[in-house]
Amino acid sequence: MSEIERYKPYKGAAAGWGALIAVTKNWLGSENAFKNIRAMLKTNQNGGFDCPGCAWGESQESGMVKFCENGAKAVNWEATGRLVNPAFFNKYTVSSLAAQSDYWLEYQGRLTHPMRYDASLDRYVETSWDDAFALIAKHLKELESPDQAEFYTSGRASNEAAYLYQLFVRAYGTNNFPDCSNMCHEASGLGMGDSVGVGKGTVTFDDLEESDAIFVIGQNPGTNHPRMLEPLREAVKRGAQVICFNPLKERGLERFQHPQHPLEMLTNGSEPTSSAYFRPALGGDMAAFRGIAKFLLEWERDALENNGEAVFDRAFIAEHTAGLDSYLAEVDATSWEHIVEQSGLSLEDIELAARMYRRAKRVIMCWAMGVTQHAHSVVTVQEIINVQLLRGNIGRPGAGLSPVRGHSNVQGDRTMGINELAPPELIHALEARFDFKVPRHHGHNTVMAIAAMEEGRSKVFIGLGGNFAQATPDTPRTHDALRKCDLTVHIATKLNRSHLVMGREALILPCLGRTDIDIQEEGPQGVTVEDTFSMVHISHGQLKPKSPLMRSEPAIIAGIANATLGKHPIDWLWTVADYSRIRDLIADTIPGFEDFNNKLLHPGGFHLGNAAAQRIWETASGKAQFVSSVLPAHLVSEGVRTLDVKPDLILQTMRSHDQYNTTLYGLDDRYRGVYGMRDVVFVNEQDIRKLGYEPGQKVDMVSLWGDGRERRVSGFTLIAYDIPPGQAAAYYPETNPLVPLESYGDRTYTPTSKFIAIRLEPAPASNLIQSLGA
Ligand SMILES: Nc1nc2c(c(=O)[nH]1)N[C@H]1C(S)=C(S)[C@@H](COP(=O)(O)OP(=O)(O)OC[C@H]3O[C@@H](n4cnc5c(=O)[nH]c(N)nc54)[C@H](O)[C@@H]3O)O[C@H]1N2
Ligand SMILES: Nc1nc2c(c(=O)[nH]1)N[C@H]1C(S)=C(S)[C@@H](COP(=O)(O)OP(=O)(O)OC[C@H]3O[C@@H](n4cnc5c(=O)[nH]c(N)nc54)[C@H](O)[C@@H]3O)O[C@H]1N2
Ligand SMILES: [Mo]
């Protein structure tokens, strides 16, 4: 098949038959189809396990079968019968594994034994847990300073694992907690913290059912949070508006069918979910929301002059907010030309969005990576909040803010203290409960950790899950940085590229996943997670572990801690014999978790509470704060603007339908019409031709940054796509070599994965010949 034949625009609706067929194919393709289906039925139901997929929450009604296509893929992927055991590692040298694709590596199955890298053999060889822990302890104790070690966390770690991990790392003496959040919703936490005093969403599932308008900004729920489609569809049915801001016409947002309503599937019925769909420039959302505020202000002034109906919620503003005047002055000072130019939207579009916003009494704003992975993401989040504050849309039913989280427990990990900036309350609580001095100084986030390893300042890397080498920016540089370490350690369920980018010494430690039964000294254990609505609940694995040597994440952390610190500041091994002991420690030190073990007895779990949702503002001013920021003069960085060459396009990097971050379940992206390939770049057909290419041609992408380094990816097929002019879109992680380590968000250090200035070059001849031969 030629490249262009493998691109077929998708005609069906999202999440209907197509979705069900894809799930079933996935199930039947697995060696454990029957068991997996049974496990699936318990997902997210009381008594079952929490879906290891996304962080979306559920309404509390039980008994419903709650699953989605991509949750099914995540469960199935973890529950595979294939094994990556010592025989596997005996068969392949590390060099030969490194030549395989990321897809192939993870597809090989579950890691079963602790493995140690033997450089002389170029292989991983079996080791014992005790020897592995001893090796880690030796390296950690040999460092001149605890700040020379990096402790990464990915967002699947349970609350219990995350809590023990941060306790160990802080008792060891550092706050070096690079984590996946740094690359994800960091801007939401920072922006919301200043504005409303909490860094988490203020809405619960029920609010979605009561709102009159739901904005979905920079988010692709059809692929990444499929269970969110259901409340969106219900909203439209009730006559509420769904208003999307996304440069791409994402399938799930346009229209969809619900797989749990077979009747509708039979009639192939589908209905539009989006009442309006705005397609901004990349990074144009702050300008768009500034424009909405400007219209509201115009109408409010008009109402004041003519005794019309108020546009602003004047009582709310007076009682609850600070900073209105300077914000409105900033809105006045922002010109319409600037707003229109930067947003990529017409004045009419912005006015329509403002009218729809004004019409609704209760509005929820949801957003994800399209908002948070830019240089100016914090102020963009704050501009969204400003607009919400103007009409009192925070802290009442059916209204609020919803940064939709990614990993299934990424929010819980932060709550448990995985944070390179240890909050003062946490420091005090830990010191009151345990006998050690918590380090005060700021630790490393992800970008700082890479820089420290690159410069030889950090020498040990430990990863609690995730795929650091691929998820992070500037891939070749990051790989070199990891290779400079004395020791790299990965606690993981599946083999991935990070395990093959080793320090001088390296370990792979196989752990249980969310779906596995976890038995410790005192019996079977459950772990807890927090969803995007701050609901905490317990999760019990259902499947027999594939190897008796796998250990749970808490047990592995306790093993490392015990070997490094002995029984200081607690008896680690005693703690993990029964996880309710860890939960007692959490109850003693983390606000909202008092009486933790008892609260879990409540089916469906408990809500952590959210001050802003109750209109209690834990901000500097004690009020909800209008933050007035200047709209950036330019979105392209100065370094790039001063180059002689100009960018051809601005690239965003995103997820396909068949992937979970760096985990590739397959090579298709059904909703975008791509089959069997991932090295594609979506560009507007006019742009393709204007730049002198043909659709289907292979190109290299070279990013511009201005530091003299070349950043290039090769042999990407140009797909003529419905995308605004000047933009390109391609999949992550393949495009991470293009993201400069220094290109990160103001204050957030989040790589600007949705805004990369690139040039296209014809692919070298070798690629063309390859494609002709294919
Ligand atoms: N199946 C599946 N589920 C997942 C994941 C997965 O990989 N697979 N990942 C999980 C994780 S960790 C996360 S963080 C979430 C990610 O969930 P999303 O944020 O939905 O993920 P992305 O694919 O990065 O999609 C970003 C969306 O924003 C749009 N966009 C890009 N730039 C801009 C912009 O400047 N403005 C606007 N308005 N829109 C823009 C893109 O067109 C795209 O639709 O999903 C979680 N759930
Ligand atoms: N260019 C670009 N880069 C991005 C993004 C982007 O949109 N564009 N998105 C960013 C975002 S939002 C995120 S969250 C990060 C994700 O970064 P990470 O969280 O580091 O990456 P994942 O791909 O989710 O990690 C997958 C690996 O986790 C391991 N794993 C799976 N389940 C478990 C488990 O239960 N326990 C343990 N210990 N290990 C497990 C498996 O070995 C698997 O290979 O990537 C970021 N990078
Ligand atoms: Mo994420």
UniProtKB/TrEMBL annotation:
Cite the GO molecular-function annotations of the record.
Answer: 4 iron, 4 sulfur cluster binding; formate dehydrogenase (NAD+) activity; molybdenum ion binding
Coiled-coil residues: none
| UniProt cross-references to InterPro entries, sorted A to Z | Asp_de-COase-like_dom_sf (IPR009010), MopB_CT_YdeP (IPR037951), Mopterin_OxRdtase (IPR006656), Mopterin_OxRdtse_a_bac (IPR010046), Prok_molybdopt-oxidoreductase (IPR050123), YdeP_MopB (IPR041953)
Q: Please state every residue range assigned to the domain named Molybdopterin oxidoreductase.
A: 110-491
The Swiss-Prot or TrEMBL record lists the needed cofactor(s) as: Mo-bis(molybdopterin guanine dinucleotide); [4Fe-4S] cluster
Q: Which UniProt keywords apply?
A: 4Fe-4S, Iron, Iron-sulfur, Metal-binding, Molybdenum, Oxidoreductase
Homology family: Belongs to the prokaryotic molybdopterin-containing oxidoreductase family.
- Name this protein carries in UniProt: CbbBc protein
- Which species is this record about? Pseudomonas taetrolens
The record lists the lineage as:
Bacteria, Pseudomonadati, Pseudomonadota, Gammaproteobacteria, Pseudomonadales
